[in-house]
Amino acid sequence: MPRLGSNRYGKAEVRVLRVSRGSERDALRDWNVSSSLSGDLAAVHLSGDNGHVLPTDTQKNTVYAFAQRLGDVEPEAFALALGEHFVGSQPPITRARIAVEQYGWRPGPAGHSFVRDGGEVRTTTVVHDETLGTTVVSGIDDLVLLNTTNSEFWGFVKDELTTLPETRDRILATQVSVRWRFRSTAVDWAAAHDAAREALLAAFADTYSYSLQQTLYAMGTRILGAVGDICEVRLTLPNKHHFLVDLAPFDLVNDNEVYLAADRPYGLIEGTVLADDADEAPLAWS
Amino acid sequence: MPRLGSNRYGKAEVRVLRVSRGSERDALRDWNVSSSLSGDLAAVHLSGDNGHVLPTDTQKNTVYAFAQRLGDVEPEAFALALGEHFVGSQPPITRARIAVEQYGWRPGPAGHSFVRDGGEVRTTTVVHDETLGTTVVSGIDDLVLLNTTNSEFWGFVKDELTTLPETRDRILATQVSVRWRFRSTAVDWAAAHDAAREALLAAFADTYSYSLQQTLYAMGTRILGAVGDICEVRLTLPNKHHFLVDLAPFDLVNDNEVYLAADRPYGLIEGTVLADDADEAPLAWS
Amino acid sequence: MPRLGSNRYGKAEVRVLRVSRGSERDALRDWNVSSSLSGDLAAVHLSGDNGHVLPTDTQKNTVYAFAQRLGDVEPEAFALALGEHFVGSQPPITRARIAVEQYGWRPGPAGHSFVRDGGEVRTTTVVHDETLGTTVVSGIDDLVLLNTTNSEFWGFVKDELTTLPETRDRILATQVSVRWRFRSTAVDWAAAHDAAREALLAAFADTYSYSLQQTLYAMGTRILGAVGDICEVRLTLPNKHHFLVDLAPFDLVNDNEVYLAADRPYGLIEGTVLADDADEAPLAWS
Amino acid sequence: MPRLGSNRYGKAEVRVLRVSRGSERDALRDWNVSSSLSGDLAAVHLSGDNGHVLPTDTQKNTVYAFAQRLGDVEPEAFALALGEHFVGSQPPITRARIAVEQYGWRPGPAGHSFVRDGGEVRTTTVVHDETLGTTVVSGIDDLVLLNTTNSEFWGFVKDELTTLPETRDRILATQVSVRWRFRSTAVDWAAAHDAAREALLAAFADTYSYSLQQTLYAMGTRILGAVGDICEVRLTLPNKHHFLVDLAPFDLVNDNEVYLAADRPYGLIEGTVLADDADEAPLAWS
Q1: Span B143-285: which CATH code?
Q2: By the 8 A CB rule, do B280 and A7 touch?
Q3: Exposed end of chain B (fewer CB within 10 Å): N or C?
């Protein structure tokens, strides 16, 4: 007899722009919101009985209604409110997971005019569980960083399939995906984001790197040191290879000037750095 | 004091085409292979000491070398061999995770000519751990299915933010991402894939659906019933909404003929179906 | 003084699914329709006077209304009707350009169930001009073809920056984007599509190729030979490089078995083949 | 008898990063370069004779060699040099088309550290023809702009399929793709780019808009006014619809605060603005 395991359902990628009108300049919140709900949902799976199912269309409506009600809030505050609403108002629902991506806009030449900042995306994921509590994990995606020097790679294992030469000077580039877990839900979210981001950028620039793993660990420790409200940092760092082009066949010297920016394959470094007193929190990462 | 948590590193998206020459028709294996290794890797994180690090470039070389040696094998067999190789040959490495995407090709009008099958992708992920054992999870991505009828949605919760009308006839469409976990590593991989895929398609076509969750559960149970080697099925089913277009303003009757295919937002249904005797296997899904 | 040059406006990417119910099996038309209109539109550019502007929202509505009215027609017939409608009904509009992408579906295991064919896309573009007449250009995008042999590349120019070795046996792979122009608007569109596609596949498979240009020209001539209604063929053929992996450092022989499938850069071959009596038709390609 | 029409071939998307080392801060040129060549190329099409074909692999090498030789130059200067090289050094080649995309990087917290600017892409396309001369067309892609107000849309045509209500206040957002043609090849490229970009942003912010066409025309005229070296501007402006969400069913007032950001379909406005004395230049846009 088969049995139903863990499950959840929701509405993904609700795109909402929230404009808050100001006297000098308007403020924008440009979000991509995904909600998913879990709880007493066996019946809908086993027999298609929707009696416990709040439609995903309603979840979408709720995003828009809360965007109006809550005004110009940080995405963490929005996600917390939304998660509490679903669990609090729907008896069969015991857990909600709310994820928000926030896209940046820079001021344009007039107070009502904006230029999209096409790079990094700010993220947050709130899991609100009726009995297990609430976790907040925020972070950044698609933050692309590059150092033109201060990176070496040597002293590695050489087996019979190794052909890579050692290098004492290479470009180090990565597209950062980082997540940081907060100790509580009472945090100055904007300040925490800014401080964590600044620590990450500083760690990348300051670390004289012998491996991308070393840089990863430096990023994690610097973020933990900068923001006491954060107890765990997870990083996914693709190694965006920039290979020095061999110009010798053309009698040209390539003195670390001309690089081939490769697409695939790429190195992929994943790791976690925790505060010494951090607890396990599987719920936060579910 | 910060501490290093779980971590892994490897080479992602090594694109390899393996041609096996035949008298009537050649055989292709068109793969995207990603490897990642874990083990005694604290030093590289803490001080940049690469003494335990087999370069990701070598992992890439290994993919190509094994593709030559192993010949026209199923992706599961390839991933198993690769995982065992890394753990077996690198003392500091205690775990390897090998993921393969296989792209399909249809025969063209000559035995050396092929037409890419641009749709679904066959996947496998092998985790080989020195002490915890070996797991194989295979599946399919990007399999897009659509039923023109035999789907209803009504009887759901209505709260004060619900505006969705009930429907007794709608299009049901989804882009299946499915993973099935095998009980062992001694399986006829090709036969298992074909049987699981056929069971999934049949479940989708045969189930008169009152919710996508019901269809998900039917898919899982049918796969478990069809392939005894499989003990767990996880499904991620976006609800690719096709909304009936309101043509009444134009004095046209839309008798379930003209639909708007929407992009975002979309419903997202995720669930697991397990055989009654299936164990927990967190390693398999790491 | 600046002056307004050529211009057009419309609604892009209207996604419509048209279901035609059958006794044994339903029929699907899954389309992405884009319309754009040109004509006496100076005022809207110079002063924002919308008096000649049929809203793009209305163009979208028109796509849905015509999908209902016209039923299960070929995309060329749909685009012709739509273009004639806009030019015929809007006095300021003298030209319409209608582009349709058609996505394929394969039959599933029941008459109401379908599996998306994720590969090639069938296309058509109709330009209907009040005074210059009507042109139909159809074709295929994203048709990926591969020959495992019967391709050489040698005898090319070697300048001081050439390092490529000659080869007498290589993989030839390309992602075909092809467009064929019809002589008239009275054509059996489905039959023409099938015959042109078959001729293209046959040309790719049959041509022993010394260059991708040669294969391109063969494709064009075969299509012209197969479909008398077609007078011009334009092809865009990226050379999807598959490089033989050098396994010699590992004491392995790579006897044309293991290839690296590269992403970028890629060769790009573009060319036109015309029937001897084909006229110039700039309108068709605008 | 079929005949060969216009054709070209080359290497697309050569990814080159050029680092110029500085005492305070390094300078980056992060480019995606595509070259294509035309000329006496009938033989390679008709019989596969490559005697006139400079391999696309060599074109790639040439990009890297020129990146080393030319140093930290503007993309226009690079493309001009490359085009002249191919036509000047290859007798059968009479025309070269060189396209460069330049990706932006912002300074990081150290002189060797950079943060990718993920938004707009700077582009240039040079066509160098042995007899017809040389044209330079530069521009920007993926520049996303949004005004929160000062946009109306009313007074448009209403036919029997029109349902769109008029509006006196809407969001206007677009993803600008703009190209400007220069009068000559002796231009301060960096200054021209900055001035044209600034004029475009100012036109978007300053124009009280009754239609996106009006904004397009304003952009074109402002660029022409700002940069005398430019004689033609072509703009492609998708109307990235932001629909005001109807919150009335929830007894909420939506006072232009909460918008749905839509993906598809989208309006698409294309137009050209020319200086009064601008000549026709089909070569530039080929």
Answers
A1: 3.10.270.10
A2: no
A3: N
Please indicate whether, in this complex, the C-beta atoms of A270 and B162 are within 8 angstroms of each other: no
Distance CA D140, CA D120 (A): 7
Residues of chain B numbered 49-88 and touching chain A (CB < 8 Å)? 49-58, 60-62, 65
Q: How far is C242 from chain A (nearest CA, A)?
A: 14
CA dist C216 and C237 (Å) reads: 8
SS (H, E, C) chain C: CCEEEEEEEEEEEEEEEEEECCCCCCEEEEEEEEEEEEECCHHHHHHCCCCCCCCHHHHHHHHHHHHHHHCCCCHHHHHHHHHHHHHHHCCCEEEEEEEEEEEEEEECCCCCEEEEEEEEEEEEEEEEECCCEEEEEEEEEEEEEEECCCECECCCCCCCCCCCCCECCCCEEEEEEEEEEECCCCCCHHHHHHHHHHHHHHHHHHCCECCHHHHHHHHHHHHHHHCCCEEEEEEEEEECCEEECCCHHHCCCCCCCEEEECCCCEEEEEEEEECCCCCCCHHHHC
Tell me: domain B9-131, CATH 3.10.270.10, correct?
Answer: yes
Question: Cβ neighbours of residue D60 under 8 Å, at least 6 residues apart?
Answer: C265, D11, D14
Burial A93-124 (b: 16+ CB within 10 A, else e): bbbbbbbbbbbbbeebebbbbbbbbbbbbbbb
Q: How far apart are the CA of A247 and the nearest CA of chain C, in angstroms?
A: 9
User: Phi, psi (5° rounding) for residue B239?
Assistant: -90, 100
Domain ranges across chain D: 9-131, 143-285
The third-level CATH classification (topology) of the domain covering C9-130 is Urate Oxidase (3.10.270)
Q: Is C56 a catalytic residue?
A: yes
Same fold, D9-131 and D143-285: yes
Kindly state whether A202 is in contact with chain B, defined as any CB-CB distance less than 8 angstroms: no
Which of helix, strand or coil describes residue A210?
coil
Q: Which of C160, C163, C250 comes nearest A160 by C-beta?
A: C250
| Interchain proximity C51–D9, CB inside 8 Å | no
Neighbours of chain D (3+ CB pairs under 8 A): A, B, C
CB contact, 8 Å: A242 with chain B? no
0.90 surpassed by complex ipTM: yes
Tens digit of each residue's pLDDT, chain B (286 residues): 899 999 999 999 999 999 999 999 999 999 999 999 999 999 999 999 999 999 999 999 999 999 999 999 999 999 999 999 999 999 999 999 999 999 999 999 999 999 999 899 999 999 999 999 999 999 999 999 999 999 999 999 999 999 999 999 999 999 999 999 999 999 999 999 999 999 999 999 999 999 999 999 999 999 999 999 999 999 999 999 999 999 999 999 999 999 999 999 999 999 999 999 999 899 999 9
- Nearest-angstrom CA–CA distance, A245 and B112: 35
Chain B positions touching A47 (Cβ under 8 A) are 210, 214
Is the CB of residue A41 less than 8 Å away from at least one CB of chain B? yes
Q: A64, D119: Cβ pair inside 8 Å? A: no
C-alpha distance from B56 to closest chain A C-alpha (Å): 6
Average pLDDT over residues D150-154: 98
Residue A172 corresponds to which tokens in the numbers above? Answer: 């180090």
Out of A117, A144, A206, the one facing D110 most closely (by C-beta) is: A206
Token readout for B208 is 């008169």
Contacts of B161 in chain D (CB under 8 A): 250
Q: Choosing from C128, C193, C240, C241, which is the catalytic residue?
A: C241
Q: Which of B141, B169, B259, B263 should be substituted to probe chain C, the one whose Cβ sees the most C Cβ atoms within 10 Å? A: B259
- The pair of structure tokens assigned to D87 is 């036509």
> By the CB < 8 Å criterion, does D159 face chain B?
no
On the question of pLDDT at C35 being above 90, the answer is yes
